[in-house]
Specification:
alpha+beta, Phosphatase 2c, domain 1, 3-stranded antiparallel beta sheet, 7 helices, 12 strands
């Protein structure tokens, strides 16, 4: 899907392709400066992140630079999270046609992200491991931000003026009615854990397997109803830029998107990351 990050402030609202085209023709502003920071706290150590601010789409060509940031929240072991951190970007880039222009690269990126997530899941399941992971991968190229995600690790965008946008969809069965319908329509069962005596406890889960998420990478043992196909969103930043906050559910269970954004406005990126986690 595509849309402008601050669509309500554009007069008139313009299609994303038009905005990107203006930037590529040079009548937008120059490439933004990307600053980043990271911080983490995990008792079990199943969360991993990826920071690659110096990627080159065309080897040796600085004008083809882009940045990648990702969060992987593993469960039932660390194997899927580690594998995804090491392989996901490689699989995405292998799905991008060679020798294309930047305009075509940005247009092909959403489809390449879907292919990369699926390829990573297939390759991991061949390892015979049963762990799983959420994955939220963010590609920043100029003023264009493309986000792909499975699970409940979230990415938000905070732009000047205080507008906070959610760039991901939480794939929790408890909150996502569309995903519950998808699972049940394909033959899965969605229900809570049933204790002796018929008492139901905890969040909604997909059976077999009992996973609370409807989309992930890995989770070989939970059946075909948990899929690796990501939600993808591509937005164009305003010329004033913006701040992205990418984090696993440990943050979002405690903070709303607005609270997290407000907590670190005006702060350097590294300090902002530490403050959000704290």
């Amino acid at each position: 899907m595509a849309g402008a990050a601050t669509e309500g402030k554009l007069t008139p609202a313009l299609p994303l392709a038009t905005l990107i085209g203006r930037e590529l023709r040079g009548d937008g502003s120059e490439r933004p400066l990307v600053r980043y920071g990271h911080s983490g706290f995990a008792k079990r150590g199943e969360d991993y992140f990826l920071v690659k601010p110096d990627c080159l789409r065309v080897p040796g060509d600085p004008s083809s630079a882009f940045s990648v940031f990702a969060v992987f929240d593993g469960h039932n072991g660390v194997s899927a999270a580690v594998f995804s951190k090491e392989k996901l970007l490689e699989h995405v880039m292998s799905a991008v046609p060679q020798g294309i222009s930047r305009d075509d690269w940005l247009q092909s990126l959403p489809r390449a992200l879907v292919a990369g997530f699926v390829k990573t899941d297939i390759d991991f399941q061949r390892q015979g491991e049963t762990s799983g992971t959420t994955a939220t991968l963010v590609v920043v190229d100029g003023f264009t931000v493309t986000v792909a995600s499975v699970g409940d690790s979230r990415c938000i965008l905070d732009t000047q003026g205080g507008e906070v946008s959610l760039l991901t969809v939480d794939h929790r069965l408890e909150e996502n009615a569309e995903e519950r319908e998808r699972v049940t329509a394909s033959g899965g069962e969605v229900s809570r854990l049933n204790l002796c005596g018929g008492q139901e406890v905890g969040p909604l889960r997909c059976w077999p397997g009992g996973l609370c998420l409807s989309r992930s990478i890995g989770d070989t043992d939970v059946g075909e109803f948990i899929v690796p196909i990501p939600h993808v969103k591509q937005v164009k930043l305003p010329n004033t830029g913006g701040r992205l906050i990418i984090a696993s559910d440990g943050i979002w269970d405690a903070l709303s998107s607005e609270t997290a954004a407000q907590a670190c406005r005006g702060l350097p990126a590294e300090l902002a990351a530490k403050l959000v986690v704290k």
